[in-house]
Each structure stands twice: as structure tokens, then as C-alpha cells.
Amino acid sequence: MVLKNIIQEAYHKVNSIDDKGQLASYIPELVNVDSESFGVYISTIDHVNFGIGNCHDKFSIQSIAKVLSLSLAYSILGEKIWSRLGVEPSGTAFNSLVQLEVDNGIPRNPFINAGAIVISDILLSHLKNPKDDFLAFVRTISNNSELNYSTKIATSEKAVGYRNIALCNFIKSFNNIENDPSEVLDFYFDLCSLEMSCKELTEVFLFLANNGYNNNDNSTIVTKSQSKRINALMQTCGFYDESGEFAFKVGLPGKSGVGGGIIAIHPNQYVIAVWSPKLNKKGNSYKGMRFLEEFTTKSELSIF
Amino acid sequence: MVLKNIIQEAYHKVNSIDDKGQLASYIPELVNVDSESFGVYISTIDHVNFGIGNCHDKFSIQSIAKVLSLSLAYSILGEKIWSRLGVEPSGTAFNSLVQLEVDNGIPRNPFINAGAIVISDILLSHLKNPKDDFLAFVRTISNNSELNYSTKIATSEKAVGYRNIALCNFIKSFNNIENDPSEVLDFYFDLCSLEMSCKELTEVFLFLANNGYNNNDNSTIVTKSQSKRINALMQTCGFYDESGEFAFKVGLPGKSGVGGGIIAIHPNQYVIAVWSPKLNKKGNSYKGMRFLEEFTTKSELSIF
Amino acid sequence: MVLKNIIQEAYHKVNSIDDKGQLASYIPELVNVDSESFGVYISTIDHVNFGIGNCHDKFSIQSIAKVLSLSLAYSILGEKIWSRLGVEPSGTAFNSLVQLEVDNGIPRNPFINAGAIVISDILLSHLKNPKDDFLAFVRTISNNSELNYSTKIATSEKAVGYRNIALCNFIKSFNNIENDPSEVLDFYFDLCSLEMSCKELTEVFLFLANNGYNNNDNSTIVTKSQSKRINALMQTCGFYDESGEFAFKVGLPGKSGVGGGIIAIHPNQYVIAVWSPKLNKKGNSYKGMRFLEEFTTKSELSIF
Amino acid sequence: MVLKNIIQEAYHKVNSIDDKGQLASYIPELVNVDSESFGVYISTIDHVNFGIGNCHDKFSIQSIAKVLSLSLAYSILGEKIWSRLGVEPSGTAFNSLVQLEVDNGIPRNPFINAGAIVISDILLSHLKNPKDDFLAFVRTISNNSELNYSTKIATSEKAVGYRNIALCNFIKSFNNIENDPSEVLDFYFDLCSLEMSCKELTEVFLFLANNGYNNNDNSTIVTKSQSKRINALMQTCGFYDESGEFAFKVGLPGKSGVGGGIIAIHPNQYVIAVWSPKLNKKGNSYKGMRFLEEFTTKSELSIF
User: Fold this and answer.
1) What band does C107 get if pLDDT is binned at 50, 70 and 90?
2) Which helix H or strand E contains C297, and what residues bound it?
3) Yes or no, beta carbons of B300 and A224 under 8 Å apart
4) Are the C-beta atoms of B93 and B241 separated by less than 8 Å?
5) CA angle A149, A152, A153 (to 5 degrees)
6) What is the DSSP annotation of B146-196?
7) How far away is chain A from the Cα of B228, in angstroms, using its nearest Cα?
8) Which chains touch A (3 or more CB pairs under 8 A)?
């Protein structure tokens, strides 16, 4: 199988490179991982699966969970969700608070923290038992009842999440948060604490390579149009101020997390998940970015 | 032919909508067009061609020319071109000068004015007769010797181009312009004054749907990798602060101009050009955006 | 007495003007005042005192209290206080969060909310019973044991103080808050809830017209150098983004509050306090600003 | 004489300090000065005059000239001048272009470059022979026919003034420049090239310590109200983003230039001029700032 060979070759090439990245330091608990871990897993809609390295080790998916909370909220509210937040790249990380001020509390997109906090607020208003219901959603779409939050990680982040408290209260001051800020943040930190392996990530995200359908039972998770739009959003906004670079070098919609995970989606073809915990200066996995660039260059499988 | 039917249907639907756009006012000469014009043309790499409405009328392509100047400069310098400018979306139009200040004169991407001015400076340093050589490039790749600049438009813009003069001198103050600012701007205004019809636009841009190859003689205009990367840049940065919206609603790499033209590219499949001169509030063709949204929704042919 | 005549004349002239201001709306409790109130009181270091209008009615002094908390903190820590915040005008109100981000959590001056919150944090770290000790300080310098906080106002502001919660947590994320943010804010909201009349305000603030000495018993409240510097800070930063305008039109160091109060100080001469609750667009008392302009123009008693 | 002793003492103390400043580098010609120069001159309205060090050496007064062009324009147009620019501090140097964008081409005050360029434009519209007429104004108020521009300095700055060209054209794009940008800039660079000694500077600026009257013949140069307002503007905006620091530490209205000169005014008392060409990080004379701090601390003669 060609894909398998390309993955193996790219994996070994990147694994031999000196990793210049740094472990995320802002969540204390995140430093307690093996910094040399490096795993890759791919799942195609034709049921081809292949993994290498630490592809079965669980890690904190962090911001990758923002795609899942958006998917659930989008499936519940449809297009009217966009009255609460935008679909534009935010320029630089540095600008996020500036732009909230300029845009009167409307986050620019669902993948910056401000936007994900608004999505959490929406889910809080629409779910009966938000924490349980969201977990049930993730377990159902992946047919994997073992997925779970990490209380340790959530607690660790809550203890130092001053900037997110600032963001949430700032948005609340513009009346774009309906619930109590501390409840919104609690739920938000729980979402980000989801733990999965690369293999499990591809099982969860395969619906976005499959036009919104569950690849097992063909049920609709989000509509075809919503699936395309979520992918478009990942393409333009998935990597903070490195989104352009990722589109440019990798050429696939994707999303990263500060735990060192990245998922990338080739619509109608496959999902690939990479994990390596040391991050580059923009906060994305150093080896993960390098691997995906190598992979799409070799496979010539980008969407462009 | 299905494509033809979809285009006809979308064209008539959008043409019947009340056009809420406004003619561009900042270049005096641009108001002298028939504001009701509306044309569409598609060319596939399989040599299918189809047009409707004012698809044979020439108009000022303005910023669409930035893709062509980038293509020529990129083919000459290769990747080292990115030491002079970035590949990230700029956030908002409103931020462009701010970000130049923060980023020390390095424009965020080649499609904001600042970036296109730097590209003009690069071409000025590398071409013998910049104005003639660039025109020759455009004529060659489209096999159309009738393409030309509009002296009227260029002169009209030069007379009021204070903001671009400001941008160019500002970048020069950071040492990121090599040539005399007034020469750089002269060349820049000439580039933007290129005139073409929708049909001609598709002939010029077909190479970006064809992995960088000329669809007629198979010669290499830019490399396959460069072609993919130019498309990725159009996807993330082609519509100023409406780039996310375009990716979200249309789902194709594209580029707009204040003359009311838009090109969009489906890699490995086709180029589509739309022209309607009244602009929405973000400076993109009102009907053009609506048409392309309708078109990709109906055809389900987005890249996502 | 000349001063008395000038004050009477200016008072009646301004009182007859149509008041275009608006009551502050962001603290619910603040709207429960008589919007037509208008009082003025002056105290000179030569023991001349004169008042007019509602000069004996108590009102919420709000941000005017920031001068008092600064004075106490400055007298305790001396110049090393400036490692925690700056002495520069902040440009515009609109920029405050931006500049915190650019300046890594160091507020530009002690009179914007961010700066006053840092001062509250400092007092919290240095006072045994912060709330009681601060009140004792204010009572002592004015020899007025009836001064007090308003629980109603403090509670009202705490219930909607999302933006200040955002500010405090944002600064905490830069490690420039030592205590628990909710305790800092509690104390901050208490400070701002102090209630006084114009007459009482002049008694409290007379030390700043008297080189830092208590005008009754000649004890040192702050040093002469500190007194001059606090006055300089009021001159450049006392009126948010209307500080330049106040220096320009009134020409005295001063400080305003959203309760509609303003104090102004003529070093070595007098303190004048004005109160009228309707605010102009920049958040300063409409009649208060007009009165002080009239007063210093007529008296020619500005410091310039 | 006490003043004389204080000046001598402060001069020697500061002169013995290691000067950590740097010569201005952005105007090539400015580096051709003796970097160790250090002069001080004071003139009181009671005709006391005293100088020390290089107080008779001429140097490029640069931005100090902005106070003179403002004075002339203000005396011609009166208050309606403020429809073209503001009276607020600009926050940080870094913000100037940002704020022009936010404020639609209205500079925040007459002492940032943007504001001084607008003042130049105003003079250009109102003077018959702008360059000659302005020089005549400066010579008349100081009764010194030997004052002159430096062609060398003006030419040197014109050759590299890209950032000012950017500013002027940017303001023009907002319709806040009436004349041709290149003529406005020519005049602006001429103004800034004025050369004087510390002694001559005090003669030119004595009117601002004298309520707008010429101290020799008692003629009105600007009105008393205008004089107070110009002083207020110097207090809040005279030192770019070190204006607060200067008010805080020195406590006098003043203006600096990148040639290393500073003037400071004590209304109703004196003008003091200092010159030392090495600049601190904010672009103000390192020794000059230190001297004035020492001087007002020792003399206790600040306005606060």
C-alpha cells in the first residue's frame, strides 16, 4: 500500500530530525508526558487503517475538541449559530482581545479560545446535562464508550486559567455569554481535557472526511453542507496565526491542540492524526507540522 | 451538460435578486461602467467552455492581477520570495497598516496591497522591461496577444493613490522596498489596470487548475508545488477580510478585484470567472459572491 | 471675595445651559440619583471655603477614589510602586486592553481601571484589614469620621462588573496580581463606592494643594515630591481619553468619576469639587467640565 | 543667585554621569555633531539670563520647531484649527499610524509628526511665501535676524523621509491635507531644520512663559488663552510616549527634538533650554531629561 509506505518514510525522516519544539508550559499537568512521543494514524473512508509509533497512546486533545463542540452546536442550531460568532481568520494570536473589543464581543471564529467559549455557552444553554451529553456525543460518533475527560488536566487548567476567565467575562460584558461565566468556563475546561490516542482521533473525526455521515452506520452527524463548512473553517482558522502556513505547506483542513495533537482531513478520502508533544513557537506540534508537510508533499494528496 | 444547467440556473436566480452593492468609488474611472453588467465563464481542463451574460465584455481586473504578478515572481525566485512577505491572512482590512508596523514592514501575504507592492518591487528588480515583460507573460500563458493595460484606469488611480503611496513609503522605511517608491507604484498601478473579459480570465488562470502547467502546450508556468501553494494562498487570503466567508460559503480558492471580477479555481477541474461591478461592503462583487455560493452549493463541487 | 463671585457667575451660566449629558448606565444603582443635581465647593489652603448648589449632597465618588488609593499605596511603597504600573497617558479608553497585551500586563497609569486594580492588589498585600484600614485613612486625612462606603453601590457594581473581572484576570495571567482576583475586585469595588459631598471631597483632597501636608495639623500624608507627582499624573491621565482636553481647556490637575464628580487642584492654592451626574460621551460630568472651563477662564487661575 | 547655583550643581552632577544615550541615526546628517556636547541656558521674564556648557553652540532643533509652527498657525486661525487635529496624548509612538486609521486621518495632537504635518499644510494654505514667512516669524519674536534653516539637514532628511511621506499621503487619503503632499513635506522638513543655540531657543520661546506677549516690546504673539493652551499641550503631549514621565519627573510643560534639544517653560517665570545630542530609548535627550529632573527637584519649581 502506497499510503503506508509514504507514512513510514515520512515518519522516520521527521523522527530523526532534531526536535526544536518545547513542551506546552501553561497547563502544569501537560508537562507530565513523554516529550519524545511521536505517533501517526490514518483512516480512510474505504476502511484502510494504518498506524505507526505511539499511535495508541492517549494524550490530551485540548483545542482539537473545539471542532467537536462546534459540530454538536452547529447540528443543533444550524446557521443561526453565526449570529454569535464569525468565520474569519483572526490575523494574529496577539490580536484576539483587540478584535473582541473592535468587534463588540463577537469572536472571529469558533477555533480561537473566545469563539470556543461562546460555543460552550451555546451548548450549556441547549444540553440538559452538558458534560455528560457532550461526552455521549463523542462516544457515539466514534462507537467508543471508553473515551473520557481527564479530571487531572481539567483541574490543572482551571487553577491557572486566568486568561480564559478574562476572555469569558470580557465577552459577557458585551452580552454575548448567556450563562454564568464560571459555569461556561468549567464546561470549556472539561471539553478541552478529552483524552484520546491518534487511532481514536481518526475514528472520531472520520465523519468530516465523509460529508458528515457516520462511516459505520451512515447516520447523519452534521449535514453535508455543515461538514464542508467545518472543513473550510479548519482550513482558514485551524492553526491560529499559522493557519496560512498550514494551508500553504500541508494543504489540508486541520486542527491542532497544545497537547501536541493535530488532525487533518482530506474530504472524501481520509483523516490523519499526528501526535508529538513538543510545540513550535506558534503553539503547534513541531514534528506534527513537519510530518504532515512531508506527507502531503510526498503523496501529492493536498486539496489544492 | 450538468455544469451548464447549474450555471444558467444560478445565473438567472442571482440576476433577479435586488443588487445591494455599490460601484467602487475610490478609482474615479471605475464608475464609468454599466453597473448592471453580469457575466460568467467557465473553462475546464477537459476543454469544456461555457459562458453566459456579459462574459465577453472587458473590465478592469484590478487585484486579480496580484495572482499573476505573484506567479511570475514566484517562478523566478522560488521559495526565497517568502523572506520578503508572509503567507498568513491579515485578519481585517482595517489592520493592514497596524500589522505592517507590528511586523516591521513584512506584509502578511501577497494579496493585500502591501504584499502586492512588495511583489511589484521584486519584479522591478528582476525584469529588464518590467511593464512589457509582465504583459508578455500574461499574453503568453493565455496565448492571447490582445490583452493589455488600460492607461486610462492606471492614470486615474495614480492621481488619487495616496494610500498606496503611504503603504509603499512605509514599507520602504523598513527597508523592504529596493527600488524608488514612485517607480514601484507606477508599475503596481499598471499591473492593476489589466483589462480582460471573463472568458479571457479563465484562459489566463487555467494553469492553476492544471497543477501549474499550460493547458494548451503543457509547458510549466509554475511548478506543481507552487501551483498548490498559490491556490492555498487564494483560499486563505484572496478576499481580504471576507476570505473566511468565501472559503465557508463557496469553498474554492479564489481572488476578487474592485472592478467587480472574481476568479475561482477547482484544482484538477476548472476555472470559473464572474463579473458584476457593484461591490458588497467588504469590497467584493455582490452578485459574484452570491453566484459562486449558489454554484458550488448546487454543483456540490467545492474542495471541502 | 472675587473667587466667590466668579464661582457664582460660572455656576449660573452653566446651570442654564441645556445639559446634553446622560446618566451613567453601567452601574444599575447609579441611575437612582437626581439627574439635575449640580453642586460646587472650593477650599483654599488659606482656609477660605465656599459652596453653591447641591454641594452638601453625598454622591458616589467612583474613580476619584483612585487618587486616594494611589496616595496610600505610594506613601507605603515609595517609588518602587512603579515597577508594577506606568505613568503614561493611555491614549484612548478603547485601547486599554490592547495596551495591557502589548505591555505584558503593566497598566499604563494608576487612573485607568487596570492600574487602579493593581493598586488595590498592592494595598491588599500591605494592609492588615484593607477595607477598614483604607476607610480609616480617608477619614483621618479629612478629619471626618462619617465618610463611608455604600454597600448598595458596591453590590450593584459587583453584580455586573464583568469587564473589571476580565481586566483583573488578564493582569493576573501576566503575573502582575499577587492576590486572588476575586478578593482584589471585591476591595476595588468597595473603594469606588465611597460616598461624599463636594464639601467633603475638598476636605479630603486639600493635602494635594498643600504639598502633601494635612492642612489642619500639618502632618505628612504623602511627601512633597509624591504630592507633585500625583498632581502631574492627574494632569496627564485624570480624564481617560479626555485628559488632553481637560489640561487644554481647564488647565488644572484633576480627576473625574462616573458618578458625575470632579475634583481639580491648584497646587499651593485650592481644591475645587464639582458634581453633576449627567456625563458627556467620554464619561466625564457634562456640567462639571463646562463649569471648570468657565471658572479657570474667568479666574485665569490655571497652572499654565 | 540661587537659580544659577542650582543649575551649576545639576549641570556638573549630570555631566559626570555615564551617558547611556545614543545619537539619533535616522537623519544621516545628525550624526555629525560632537556627541559629548552639553549646554543649558535659562531666561526669566524678569530678564535674568544664565548659561553653562555648550549653550552658545547651534544645533538642529527638529521637533521643537513644531511648537513654533503651531503658535503661528494658531494665531492665524484661532480655535477652528482644532477641526483638523486633536489635543490628546497619543498613547505610544507605536500607535501613531494605528490611531490615524481609527481616527480617520485626524492626528491626535500637533506634536506627533502627523499633527505637525497637518499644521504645515495649514500654514502652506495661509502664508504667501511659507518658508520665508515662517522664518520671519521666528526671527521677529526673538529679535534675532541670524536664525536660519539648515539646508544640509533638510536635504538629508528629505532623502530618507519615507515614513513621513507615508504619514502625509495617508492623511491625504482621508482628505485632511489640502496641498500637494510633496510640497507639504518639503515645508515640514524645512521647519524641522531650524538651527539655534540654547540661548537663542530661550529668546524664541520666552513668550510662552509670558502669557503670549513678546517680553521685549510687549506685543501679542499669541493670546493669553492660546499661550496657556499651548503650554498645556506641551505638558500632555510634548515628549511622545514619555510625556507622562516628563510631567511626573520634571513637572513643566516642554518639548524635545531628536537633535537632543529640550525646552521647558515655567509659566510666568522662565524658559530653560537644554542640549545634549545622545538620546534615550524614547528619543529624548538622555542628559537633558536627567538635568531637568535634577533642576526642578532641587529648585522645587515645578508647576505641580
Assistant:
1) very high
2) helix C286-299
3) yes
4) yes
5) 70
6) T-EE-HHHHHHHHHH-HHHHHHHHHHHHTT---S-HHHHHHHHHHHHTEEE
7) 5
8) B, C
Lowest mean pLDDT among A100-109, B40-49, B244-253: A100-109
Nearest-Cα distance to chain C for A159, in Å, is: 11
State residue A87's pLDDT score: 94
Cβ–Cβ below 8 Å for C98 and A98? yes
Q: How many domains does chain C have?
A: 1
Whole-number pLDDT of residue A153: 93
Phi and psi dihedrals of D113, rounded to 5? -55, -45
What is the rounded CA–CA span in Å between residue D173 and residue D167?
10
Q: The C-alpha cell of A229 is what? A: 463548512
Which residues of chain B lie closer than 8 angstroms to A108, CB-CB? Answer: 91, 244
Alpha carbon distance D102, D97 (integer Å): 9
Distance, in Å, from the CA atom of B200 to the CA atom of D198, rounded to the nearest integer, reads: 68
Smallest Cα–Cα separation from B200: which of B8, B51, B37, B47?
A: B51
Q: Which domain holds residue C43?
A: 2-297
Q: What is the pTM of this model?
A: 0.93
Q: Reduce the DSSP state of residue D13 to 3 states and report it.
A: helix
- Per-residue model confidence (pLDDT) at position B94: 43
Chain B, 145 to 164: residues with Cβ < 8 Å from chain D are 162-163
Q: What percent of chain B has pLDDT over 70?
A: 98
Give me the residue from A98, A165, A173 closest to C163, CB to CB. A173
Q: How far is the alpha carbon of C225 from chain D, nearest alpha carbon, in Å? A: 8
pLDDT in tens, A120-146: 999 999 999 999 999 999 999 999 999
Count CB neighbours of A37 within 10 A. 17
Domain containing D33 — which CATH number?
Answer: 3.40.710.10
- Counted residue by residue, chain A has a size of 304
pLDDT band with cut points at 50, 70 and 90 for residue B96: low
Q: How far apart are CA D75 and CA B262, in angstroms?
A: 53
B64, part of any domain? yes
Q: Is residue C122 part of a domain?
A: yes
ipTM of the complex: 0.93
> Could you give the angle at which helices C130-142 and C198-205 cross, rounded to 10 degrees?
90
Whether residue D135 is contained in a domain is answered as yes
How far apart CA C17 and CA C27 sit, in angstroms, is 26
**How far apart are the C-alpha atoms of C124 and C180, rounded to whole Å?**
10
Asked if the C-beta of D98 comes within 8 angstroms of chain B's C-beta atoms, the answer is yes
Rounded CA separation C112/C60 (Å): 18
Residue A93 has pLDDT above 80, yes or no: no
Q: How far apart are CA B270 and CA B293, in angstroms?
A: 16
Q: What is the mean pLDDT of residues A214-220?
A: 92
Q: How many CB pairs under 8 A join A and B?
A: 124
**Residue A166: pLDDT over 90:** yes
Of the residues C94, C104, C163, C178, the best mutation for testing chain A's interface (the one with the most A CB atoms within 10 Å of its CB) is C163
Mutating which of C79, C248, C268, C299 best tests the D interface, going by the most D Cβ atoms within 10 A?
C248
Mean predicted confidence (pLDDT) in A94-104:
71
Q: Which of A99, A236, A267 sits opposite B89 (nearest CB)?
A: A236
In this structure, the number of other CB atoms found within 10 A of the CB of residue B180 comes to 13
> What does the pLDDT look like over B16-25, one tens digit per residue?
988 788 888 7
Q: Chain-wide mean pLDDT for chain B?
A: 93
- Mutate one of C88, C252, C292, C297 to test the D interface: name it (highest D CB count within 10 A): C88
Q: Is the pLDDT of residue D232 over 70?
A: yes
Q: What is the pLDDT of residue C25?
A: 78
pLDDT greater than 80 at residue A95: no
CA distance D133 to D2: 40
Specify if D63 maps to a domain: yes
Tens of pLDDT along D119-149?
A: 999 999 999 999 999 999 999 999 999 999 9
Q: Provide the 8-state DSSP code for D242.
A: G
